Amino acid sequence: MKPLISPSILSANFANLAADMKMINESEADWVHIDIMDGVFVPNISFGFPVLKYVAELTDKPLDVHLMIVQPEKFIQEVKDLGAEIMNVHYEACPHLHRVIQQIKEAGMKPAVTINPATPVSLLKDIIKDVHMVLIMSVNPGFGGQKFIENAINKVKELKALIKESGSNAMIEVDGGVNLETGKRLIEAGADVLVAGSAIFKATDPKEMILKMKNL
């Protein structure tokens, strides 16, 4: 089965966002990955909901919304109002993770959980059957264009084993330093979804790059 590709608009050209969204719409991309940062949970601030509303209006692709923020449960309704299909929260930001997962489901979205590079896969054991997807960060969250952390490959393999062993149907997504070389290795390790920003938007032909990733 071909991997799903979710271009990260954090790397898009915000001076001409409509053109980049048109490119994604016409490409083989499966989802649109949106990172929301608060400058507290991660050392950076991205765009707020008014900008995201504009993004949502520009595409029919499912929105894969990743909240790199403290207390993400406070924004479930806002994410839902965008028309998001997937709401992704950080394990490290949710002391009551099971409750937040249930709240996302109740809002009619698919819950996903992200783990940072230093967070072990084993901590997901008790919620793996409740989530639609797990996102493994292969860089430290907050900035685009970082170098891929090699241990992410092992974490994908470990997560794949946990999913199989528990009887979960969770998908595995990876974000950070994803390009054709790392993407191929991640898929071989068991990843289902690749998030790519710089590799796509800095390519000479972004649509062709998405297609190449899709065919890894």
TrEMBL record:
Reaction equation(s) it catalyzes: D-ribulose 5-phosphate = D-xylulose 5-phosphate
Organism domain of life: Bacteria
Residues where substrate binds: S8, H66, G142, F143, G144, G145, D175, G176, G177, G197, S198
EC number, UniProt record: 5.1.3.1
Record SUPFAM superfamilies: Ribulose-phoshate binding barrel (SSF51366)
GO aspect biological process, one term: pentose catabolic process
Entry cofactors: Fe(2+); Co(2+); Mn(2+); a divalent metal cation
UniProt keywords, alphabetically: Carbohydrate metabolism, Cobalt, Isomerase, Manganese, Metal-binding, Zinc
Protein residues bound to a divalent metal cation: H33, D35, H66, D175
Active site: D35 (proton acceptor), D175 (proton donor)
Signal peptide location: none
This protein's pathway: Carbohydrate degradation
Cofactor note (record): Binds 1 divalent metal cation per subunit.
GO molecular function, one term: metal ion binding
Entries under PROSITE patterns matching the protein: RIBUL_P_3_EPIMER_1, RIBUL_P_3_EPIMER_2
Entries under NCBIfam families matching the protein: PRK05581.1-4, rpe
UniProt function note: Catalyzes the reversible epimerization of D-ribulose 5-phosphate to D-xylulose 5-phosphate.
Family that this chain belongs to: Belongs to the ribulose-phosphate 3-epimerase family.
Record-given protein name: Ribulose-phosphate 3-epimerase
The organism of origin for this protein: Bacteroides coprosuis DSM 18011
